[in-house]
Write a structure and sequence with these properties.
heterodimer; A: 3 strands; B: 0% strand
C-alpha cells in the first residue's frame, strides 16, 4: 500500500490517474497536479505515461522483430528466430483464414496490433505499486514534485485513448477501403438499402432512413466496441489488482497470484480478439459481393 | 479517463509501427519462411527420389546377382564337361600310344627272333658240315655234298 495517510479511495484514484501534460485554463502547458486538473485540461492534453509506455513497448516489438528479420536465415532457425517465426505463422494463418482478399497491409497490421497490444497488456502483470512508487520517488526527489501528485499508469491499454486510438485507425482504414473497393455509391447503398429492402421504388425510398439509422448504429458500434472491449477488460483487471493491493500484506498473495495467473489468459485472449476483429472489419470492407 | 490528444498520438504511432512492420519486418521473415518451405519440400522430394533409386538399384543388384550365379553355374558345368572330355581324350590317346608301343615292341621281338633263327640256322648247318667233313674226310665229292647240304638247309 502506498503512503500511509492515503485513504483507500485516494489510493485507487491515484492509481487510475494518468500523468497528464496539457494546457490548463490559463493557457499554460504543464503537468496536471490532480485528477480534477487533468480533466479540466480537456482535449489539449496528452498522457505522457500511456504514450511513453506504448511507444516504448512498440519499439521493443519493432526492434526485436526487425533484428530477427534482418538476420532471417532460410536454414535452421535459432531460438529467437524460431519463436518469432511461430508468431508470424500464427498471425499469417489467422489472416489467411479470415481475410479472403489480397491486401499486403493486413497481415503486418495484424502482427503489429497483436504484438503491441500483447506487450501493453503484459504490463498489467507488473505489481501495481512498483512503477508508480518508483515514479513518485523520482518525481519528488529529482523534479521537486509533490509526491501525492505524481501519477503514473504503466498499462497503456487501460487508457481508452490508446485502445480507441487504434480502433478508430482501423475504423477509418475500413471506411477508406470500403469506399475504394465498393465506390461511394456501393458504400452508401450498403448503408441505406439494407437490411430492409423492397422492389417497390416508393417503399424503398421510405425505408432509406430506417436502414440508414440501423446500419449507421452498427457501423459506429464497431470501432467503439472494438476499442472499449480491450479497454474494459484490462481496466477491470487492473482495478482488481489495485483492490487486492488494498488488502493486508499477508493475504494479498492468496488473491493476487490466482488473479495474475487467470489474467495471463485475459492478456493473450484480448490481444488475439483485438487482432481478429481488426481482420474481420478489414475483410468486411473488402467484400464487394451482395448481401 | 479523459479523451485527449493521446488518442491521436496513439493513432499516429500505430500507423508508424504498422508501416515499419510492413516495410522491414513482415516481408523478410515471410520470404525466409517460404524459401525454407520450398527447400524442405525439395529436399523431401529428393530424398524420396533417392529412396526410389535405391529400391531400383536393389532390384537391379538382385537381378545381376542372379544372372551372375546362373552364368557361373553354366561355366562350371561347361568346365566339368570339358574336363571329362579331356580325360577321355587323354585315356584314348594313352591307350593308342600304348598299343602302338606294344606293336613296335612285338615287331622288334619278331625281327630279333628271325635274326636269331637265321644265325642259328647258319651255325647249325656249318656245324653239321664240319661234322660230316670230319667223318667223311676222303672220298666225298664236294659238289654233290654241297648240294645235299643245301637241300638240307632249305628243309630246315
Amino acid at each position: 500500500m502506498a503512503a500511509g495517510e492515503q485513504t483507500s479511495s485516494e489510493y485507487i484514484k491515484h492509481h487510475l490517474t494518468n500523468l497528464t501534460f496539457g494546457k490548463d485554463q490559463d493557457g499554460v502547458w504543464r503537468l496536471a497536479e490532480s485528477a480534477q486538473e487533468a480533466q479540466e485540461m480537456g482535449f489539449y492534453a496528452i498522457h505522457l505515461d500511456s504514450m511513453g509506455w506504448a511507444i516504448g513497448l512498440g519499439l521493443i516489438f519493432i526492434i526485436l522483430f526487425s533484428m530477427v528479420a534482418r538476420k532471417a536465415t532460410t536454414g535452421v532457425p535459432t531460438g529467437l528466430q524460431n519463436s518469432i517465426e511461430m508468431i508470424i505463422e500464427f498471425i499469417d494463418s489467422n489472416v489467411k483464414d479470415t481475410f479472403s482478399h489480397t491486401n499486403k497491409l493486413i497481415a503486418p497490421m495484424a502482427l503489429t496490433a497483436f504484438m503491441w497490444v500483447l506487450l501493453m497488456n503484459l504490463m498489467d502483470l507488473v505489481p501495481v505499486d512498483w512503477v508508480p512508487q518508483l515514479a513518485t520517488f523520482i518525481g519528488s526527489n529529482f523534479f521537486g514534485m509533490d509526491p501525492h501528485h505524481v501519477y503514473f499508469k504503466i498499462v497503456p491499454t487501460t487508457d481508452p485513448n490508446v485502445t480507441m486510438g487504434m480502433s478508430l485507425s482501423v475504423f477509418f482504414l475500413a471506411l477508406f477501403y470500403s469506399i475504394k473497393n465498393k465506390g461511394v455509391g456501393g458504400f452508401v447503398g450498403e448503408l441505406t438499402l439494407h437490411p430492409f429492402s423492397s422492389k417497390n421504388f416508393l417503399v424503398k425510398i421510405i425505408l432509406i432512413p430506417i436502414n440508414l439509422f440501423l446500419e449507421g448504429v452498427s457501423l459506429l458500434a464497431k470501432p467503439i466496441s472494438h476499442g472499449l472491449r480491450l479497454f474494459g477488460n484490462l481496466y477491470a483487471g487492473e482495478m482488481i489488482f489495485i483492490l487486492i493491493a488494498l488488502l493486508p500484506l499477508y493475504v494479498q498473495w492468496t488473491l493476487s497470484v490466482p488473479w495474475a495467473i487467470f489474467h495471463i489468459l485475459v492478456i493473450v485472449l484480448q490481444a488475439f480478439i483485438f487482432m481478429v476483429l481488426m481482420i474481420v472489419y478489414m475483410n468486411m470492407a473488402h467484400e464487394t459481393g451482395d448481401h | 479517463m479523459n479523451i485527449n490528444l493521446t488518442l491521436i498520438g496513439q493513432a499516429i504511432s500505430f500507423a508508424i509501427f504498422v508501416w515499419f512492420c510492413m516495410k522491414f519486418v513482415w516481408p523478410p521473415i515471410t520470404s525466409a519462411l517460404d524459401q525454407r518451405k520450398k527447400t524442405i519440400s525439395e529436399g523431401l522430394s529428393a530424398a524420396e527420389q533417392g529412396q526410389q533409386a535405391l529400391e531400383k538399384a536393389k532390384v537391379d543388384v538382385e537381378e545381376k546377382l542372379l544372372e551372375a550365379k546362373t552364368e557361373a553355374k553354366s561355366i562350371i558345368a561347361m568346365a566339368e564337361k570339358r574336363q571329362g572330355d579331356i580325360l577321355d581324350e587323354a585315356s584314348v590317346k594313352a591307350s593308342q600310344e600304348a598299343s602302338k608301343k606294344i606293336k613296335l615292341a612285338e615287331q622288334e621281338v619278331e625281327q630279333l627272333s628271325m635274326r636269331l633263327k637265321e644265325s642259328l640256322k647258319k651255325d647249325l648247318s656249318k656245324l653239321v658240315i664240319d661234322g660230316a667233313e670230319m667223318i667223311l674226310k676222303k672220298e666225298i665229292d664236294k659238289s654233290a655234298h654241297d648240294k645235299a647240304i643245301k637241300d638240307l638247309v632249305n628243309k630246315i
